[in-house]
């Protein structure tokens, strides 16, 4: 390694060595990572220590740090060179646009759109560990601006409703502003910014590092499953995410089960049940308070197979859409893959949906249990009973997810514009909760008539002679258009608590399992 690089790394080492004992420990690294806004800095610091502590002493010597930096910077140089198409040693906007389109599958309309992403830039030098200004013995003479990483949902390659924002925010890192206004990132800025980024082997990994300071997007995006990075797949973090989500779903569904059962009753029995209060009173009189949770066990039981099937189908769908290329999918492609995955999982677990509806509607003592109900359904109505209402259920997936996604982004942008915030900035968790709740409600309004028809078809052989269109016509003729929205109020009432409970439980279980928000 050249002498200048050795001096640079020695200065960085000394800056990281807070107690001056000639060794860097996890605490030293965590402090530096925390300054960068990295989520779970202690865990990330442990990864760096594992990569560099060759003698397994529990800390890093100067020699170990230099060896680690040498290996790490070789990888960073390869990625930098891959983006630097004109080989001038700098990354300009055009090169970034090209690599985003070709390798990440994200295309921006024009350069102005990209420039707008870089509004939140602080003037002057940032005394950040690892920056060129603080450790480079030969700083550049050109004027500098430091990009500030904002806390936002940057779910690179994911179902997040801010998926495109991943790359947009990534551009707001260290860069040089030339006199003509052209923005460019030098090799030194790139190297110094990513020197403390563990497990960076590709451009995708770089984007993953840029998005460590995040908020969890808790909008109910039911059609598109979560994406997982290569590292998460290899280390087993993917199943921990699924387990955390499963626990969150189980607690959330159980907490709101009474509202769900009221909804089913109002959907099936219509105006004969009266309003929400009379329906609740009738159910308690018939079966007691515990009857409000009828059907909940099956509703919780189907979480695991549905999540696993959706995840498997989503991964296969992404591979099919990618073909032989290594690019990342565009948002619309992810939405398509996620919708198809949702349809696939719903097809296989749909019999449980029918059983859940029948259990929710049963009277006290009518069935001995799930197996007794299933046997009687099959004996009386045949196998086709388990797919009654399947078509409206399938047709309801796309409008719900699509409208939910569009409304969520619209509300978020409206909030930011009203508060004079950068449109690339992410609002706080409470705002995201509100946006997710309202967007989910709008999605429900659009798809609710299909959900109501599905539930009525599932409920009883009374409607076995009706087709989907025939039942629609019958409801409108007998109950008017309002009949298509029976039970909508309790459905709305459960959205906010369901989203909030899911968020809290997911975070708790995620932390218990040691899952990183990467």
UniProtKB/TrEMBL annotation:
Solcar repeats lie at residues 236-320, 329-414, 427-512. GO terms for cellular component: mitochondrial inner membrane. Residues 4-39, 71-106 form the EF-hand domain. SMART domains: EFh. It comes from the Eukaryota. The keyword Calcium applies. Keywords: Calcium, Membrane, Mitochondrion, Mitochondrion inner membrane, Repeat, Transmembrane, Transmembrane helix, Transport. Belongs to the mitochondrial carrier (TC 2.A.29) family. This is Calcium-binding mitochondrial carrier protein SCaMC-2. It comes from Orchesella cincta.
